[in-house]
Amino acid sequence: xxxxxxxxxxxxxxxxxxxxxxxxxxxxxxxxxxxxxxxxxxxxxxxxxxxxxxxxxxxxxxxxxxxxxxxxxxxxxxxxxxxxxxxxxxxxxxxxxxxxxxxxxxxxxxxxxxxxxxxxxxxxxxxxxxxxxxxxxxxxxxxxxxxxxxxxxxxxxxxxxxxxxxxxxxxxxxxxxxxxxxxxxxxxxxxxxxxxxxxxxxxxxxxxxxxxxxxxxxxxxxxxxxxxxxxxxxxxxxxx
Length: 240
Fold this sequence. Notes:
The protein is mainly β and about 240 residues long.
Protein backbone atom coordinates (compact mmCIF):
# COMPACT_ATOMS: atom_id res chain seq x y z
CA UNK A 1 0.00 0.00 0.00
CA UNK A 2 1.05 3.64 -0.44
CA UNK A 3 1.06 6.37 2.19
CA UNK A 4 0.37 10.06 1.66
CA UNK A 5 3.03 12.74 1.87
CA UNK A 6 2.60 15.74 4.15
CA UNK A 7 2.50 19.41 3.51
CA UNK A 8 0.48 21.94 1.50
CA UNK A 9 -0.71 21.64 -2.06
CA UNK A 10 1.98 19.14 -3.04
CA UNK A 11 0.77 16.60 -0.49
CA UNK A 12 -1.93 14.03 -0.79
CA UNK A 13 -4.58 12.17 1.12
CA UNK A 14 -5.06 8.48 1.53
CA UNK A 15 -8.50 7.01 1.07
CA UNK A 16 -9.97 4.39 3.38
CA UNK A 17 -8.72 0.89 2.73
CA UNK A 18 -10.70 -2.01 1.28
CA UNK A 19 -8.89 -5.32 1.82
CA UNK A 20 -5.26 -4.73 0.93
CA UNK A 21 -5.95 -2.04 -1.65
CA UNK A 22 -5.29 1.63 -0.85
CA UNK A 23 -6.28 4.36 -3.26
CA UNK A 24 -4.01 7.44 -3.09
CA UNK A 25 -5.55 10.70 -4.35
CA UNK A 26 -3.05 13.61 -4.49
CA UNK A 27 -4.32 17.15 -3.99
CA UNK A 28 -4.99 18.68 -7.41
CA UNK A 29 -6.75 21.75 -8.65
CA UNK A 30 -10.43 21.09 -9.62
CA UNK A 31 -9.66 22.15 -13.19
CA UNK A 32 -7.38 19.15 -13.52
CA UNK A 33 -10.08 16.68 -12.69
CA UNK A 34 -10.89 14.97 -15.94
CA UNK A 35 -13.91 13.02 -14.67
CA UNK A 36 -16.73 13.60 -12.22
CA UNK A 37 -15.74 13.09 -8.61
CA UNK A 38 -18.36 10.35 -8.29
CA UNK A 39 -16.21 8.20 -10.54
CA UNK A 40 -13.17 8.69 -8.30
CA UNK A 41 -14.54 7.62 -4.95
CA UNK A 42 -15.04 3.96 -5.86
CA UNK A 43 -12.59 1.75 -3.97
CA UNK A 44 -11.13 -1.69 -4.34
CA UNK A 45 -9.28 -3.50 -7.10
CA UNK A 46 -11.88 -6.25 -7.60
CA UNK A 47 -14.85 -4.81 -9.52
CA UNK A 48 -13.05 -1.57 -10.50
CA UNK A 49 -10.06 -0.95 -12.77
CA UNK A 50 -7.80 1.96 -11.68
CA UNK A 51 -5.78 4.17 -13.96
CA UNK A 52 -3.42 7.08 -13.43
CA UNK A 53 -4.07 10.20 -15.46
CA UNK A 54 -1.63 12.97 -16.39
CA UNK A 55 -2.45 14.91 -13.20
CA UNK A 56 -1.30 12.06 -10.97
CA UNK A 57 -4.86 11.24 -9.98
CA UNK A 58 -6.06 7.69 -9.63
CA UNK A 59 -9.43 7.42 -11.32
CA UNK A 60 -11.82 4.56 -10.79
CA UNK A 61 -13.11 3.36 -14.14
CA UNK A 62 -16.28 1.22 -14.01
CA UNK A 63 -15.87 -2.22 -15.53
CA UNK A 64 -17.86 -2.39 -18.81
CA UNK A 65 -21.14 -4.23 -18.40
CA UNK A 66 -22.13 -6.95 -20.88
CA UNK A 67 -24.95 -6.04 -23.27
CA UNK A 68 -28.43 -7.28 -22.34
CA UNK A 69 -29.43 -10.68 -23.66
CA UNK A 70 -31.53 -10.57 -26.84
CA UNK A 71 -35.12 -11.81 -26.78
CA UNK A 72 -35.43 -15.56 -27.17
CA UNK A 73 -37.27 -17.25 -30.03
CA UNK A 74 -39.58 -20.02 -28.78
CA UNK A 75 -39.65 -22.81 -31.38
CA UNK A 76 -41.28 -26.21 -31.82
CA UNK A 77 -39.29 -29.30 -32.82
CA UNK A 78 -40.85 -32.62 -33.84
CA UNK A 79 -39.68 -36.21 -33.43
CA UNK A 80 -41.65 -38.82 -35.39
CA UNK A 81 -40.00 -41.69 -33.50
CA UNK A 82 -40.87 -40.19 -30.10
CA UNK A 83 -44.15 -38.64 -31.25
CA UNK A 84 -42.99 -35.54 -29.40
CA UNK A 85 -43.51 -31.84 -30.07
CA UNK A 86 -40.65 -30.27 -28.08
CA UNK A 87 -40.29 -26.59 -27.12
CA UNK A 88 -36.97 -24.80 -27.33
CA UNK A 89 -35.86 -21.21 -26.78
CA UNK A 90 -32.49 -21.09 -25.03
CA UNK A 91 -31.25 -24.69 -24.90
CA UNK A 92 -27.77 -25.27 -26.34
CA UNK A 93 -27.10 -21.51 -26.32
CA UNK A 94 -30.34 -20.93 -28.28
CA UNK A 95 -29.19 -23.23 -31.09
CA UNK A 96 -31.46 -26.09 -29.90
CA UNK A 97 -28.81 -28.51 -31.19
CA UNK A 98 -29.73 -30.99 -28.45
CA UNK A 99 -32.92 -31.71 -30.41
CA UNK A 100 -31.34 -31.67 -33.86
CA UNK A 101 -28.70 -34.16 -32.73
CA UNK A 102 -31.49 -36.42 -31.44
CA UNK A 103 -33.21 -36.44 -34.84
CA UNK A 104 -35.84 -33.77 -34.18
CA UNK A 105 -36.82 -31.43 -37.01
CA UNK A 106 -37.92 -27.82 -36.82
CA UNK A 107 -41.66 -27.16 -37.12
CA UNK A 108 -41.78 -23.37 -36.76
CA UNK A 109 -41.03 -20.37 -34.57
CA UNK A 110 -43.90 -19.81 -32.16
CA UNK A 111 -43.21 -16.57 -30.31
CA UNK A 112 -40.60 -14.18 -28.96
CA UNK A 113 -40.15 -14.57 -25.21
CA UNK A 114 -38.06 -12.75 -22.61
CA UNK A 115 -34.53 -13.95 -21.69
CA UNK A 116 -34.93 -12.96 -18.01
CA UNK A 117 -37.63 -11.70 -15.61
CA UNK A 118 -35.86 -8.31 -15.57
CA UNK A 119 -36.28 -7.85 -19.32
CA UNK A 120 -39.66 -6.16 -18.87
CA UNK A 121 -39.42 -3.64 -15.99
CA UNK A 122 -42.75 -3.01 -14.32
CA UNK A 123 -44.35 -6.10 -15.86
CA UNK A 124 -45.35 -9.30 -14.13
CA UNK A 125 -43.60 -12.23 -15.78
CA UNK A 126 -43.86 -16.01 -15.54
CA UNK A 127 -41.09 -18.55 -16.13
CA UNK A 128 -41.71 -20.87 -19.06
CA UNK A 129 -40.17 -24.07 -17.73
CA UNK A 130 -39.05 -27.11 -19.66
CA UNK A 131 -40.54 -30.31 -18.19
CA UNK A 132 -39.67 -33.85 -19.25
CA UNK A 133 -41.50 -37.16 -18.87
CA UNK A 134 -38.98 -39.96 -19.44
CA UNK A 135 -41.73 -42.60 -19.60
CA UNK A 136 -43.56 -40.84 -22.45
CA UNK A 137 -40.39 -39.26 -23.82
CA UNK A 138 -42.29 -35.99 -23.81
CA UNK A 139 -40.72 -32.53 -23.65
CA UNK A 140 -43.32 -30.02 -22.45
CA UNK A 141 -43.51 -26.40 -21.37
CA UNK A 142 -45.25 -25.08 -18.26
CA UNK A 143 -45.22 -22.30 -15.68
CA UNK A 144 -44.93 -22.53 -11.89
CA UNK A 145 -48.55 -23.62 -11.49
CA UNK A 146 -48.68 -26.12 -14.35
CA UNK A 147 -49.38 -29.63 -13.07
CA UNK A 148 -48.74 -32.23 -15.74
CA UNK A 149 -48.40 -35.18 -13.39
CA UNK A 150 -45.78 -36.81 -11.21
CA UNK A 151 -43.77 -38.23 -14.11
CA UNK A 152 -42.73 -34.79 -15.38
CA UNK A 153 -39.52 -33.38 -13.92
CA UNK A 154 -38.16 -29.85 -14.18
CA UNK A 155 -35.20 -29.50 -16.57
CA UNK A 156 -34.59 -25.77 -16.99
CA UNK A 157 -36.27 -22.41 -17.57
CA UNK A 158 -36.43 -21.86 -21.32
CA UNK A 159 -37.43 -18.20 -21.14
CA UNK A 160 -40.02 -15.91 -19.55
CA UNK A 161 -43.45 -14.79 -20.65
CA UNK A 162 -45.78 -11.99 -19.63
CA UNK A 163 -48.33 -12.87 -16.96
CA UNK A 164 -51.03 -10.83 -18.72
CA UNK A 165 -52.01 -10.32 -22.34
CA UNK A 166 -51.77 -6.97 -24.07
CA UNK A 167 -51.19 -5.20 -27.35
CA UNK A 168 -48.85 -7.16 -29.58
CA UNK A 169 -48.88 -10.20 -27.30
CA UNK A 170 -49.98 -13.71 -28.14
CA UNK A 171 -51.00 -16.46 -25.71
CA UNK A 172 -48.65 -19.39 -25.24
CA UNK A 173 -51.08 -22.32 -25.05
CA UNK A 174 -50.55 -25.89 -23.97
CA UNK A 175 -52.24 -28.61 -26.04
CA UNK A 176 -52.49 -32.38 -25.35
CA UNK A 177 -52.71 -35.39 -27.65
CA UNK A 178 -53.88 -38.54 -25.84
CA UNK A 179 -52.97 -40.90 -28.68
CA UNK A 180 -49.41 -39.59 -28.82
CA UNK A 181 -49.17 -38.90 -25.07
CA UNK A 182 -47.70 -35.56 -26.04
CA UNK A 183 -47.91 -31.98 -24.78
CA UNK A 184 -47.37 -29.15 -27.26
CA UNK A 185 -46.75 -25.51 -26.27
CA UNK A 186 -47.70 -23.28 -29.19
CA UNK A 187 -48.45 -19.64 -29.95
CA UNK A 188 -49.22 -19.28 -33.66
CA UNK A 189 -52.48 -19.74 -35.53
CA UNK A 190 -50.71 -22.11 -37.91
CA UNK A 191 -49.73 -24.34 -34.99
CA UNK A 192 -53.24 -24.23 -33.52
CA UNK A 193 -54.72 -25.37 -36.81
CA UNK A 194 -52.07 -28.05 -37.14
CA UNK A 195 -52.64 -29.24 -33.58
CA UNK A 196 -56.40 -29.54 -34.02
CA UNK A 197 -55.95 -31.41 -37.30
CA UNK A 198 -53.63 -33.88 -35.53
CA UNK A 199 -56.05 -34.48 -32.63
CA UNK A 200 -54.59 -32.17 -29.98
CA UNK A 201 -56.93 -30.43 -27.50
CA UNK A 202 -56.45 -27.22 -25.54
CA UNK A 203 -55.26 -27.58 -21.91
CA UNK A 204 -54.26 -24.14 -20.59
CA UNK A 205 -52.63 -20.80 -21.34
CA UNK A 206 -49.26 -20.72 -19.56
CA UNK A 207 -48.23 -17.16 -20.40
CA UNK A 208 -48.07 -14.49 -23.10
CA UNK A 209 -45.29 -13.55 -25.48
CA UNK A 210 -44.61 -11.33 -28.47
CA UNK A 211 -45.04 -12.52 -32.03
CA UNK A 212 -41.99 -14.32 -33.40
CA UNK A 213 -39.47 -11.93 -34.98
CA UNK A 214 -36.15 -12.25 -36.76
CA UNK A 215 -34.46 -10.05 -34.12
CA UNK A 216 -34.79 -12.70 -31.42
CA UNK A 217 -32.01 -15.16 -30.65
CA UNK A 218 -32.56 -18.15 -32.92
CA UNK A 219 -34.06 -18.53 -36.36
CA UNK A 220 -36.59 -16.10 -37.78
CA UNK A 221 -40.34 -16.45 -38.02
CA UNK A 222 -40.09 -17.28 -41.74
CA UNK A 223 -39.30 -20.92 -40.99
CA UNK A 224 -41.42 -23.40 -42.88
CA UNK A 225 -44.02 -25.46 -41.05
CA UNK A 226 -44.25 -29.21 -41.16
CA UNK A 227 -47.42 -30.22 -42.99
CA UNK A 228 -49.75 -32.30 -40.76
CA UNK A 229 -49.98 -34.96 -43.48
CA UNK A 230 -46.30 -35.70 -42.98
CA UNK A 231 -46.26 -35.75 -39.18
CA UNK A 232 -45.68 -39.50 -39.08
CA UNK A 233 -42.75 -39.52 -41.49
CA UNK A 234 -39.10 -38.98 -40.72
CA UNK A 235 -37.41 -36.28 -42.76
CA UNK A 236 -34.92 -33.46 -42.33
CA UNK A 237 -35.30 -29.75 -43.00
CA UNK A 238 -32.30 -27.90 -44.37
CA UNK A 239 -31.62 -24.19 -44.39
CA UNK A 240 -29.25 -22.07 -46.39
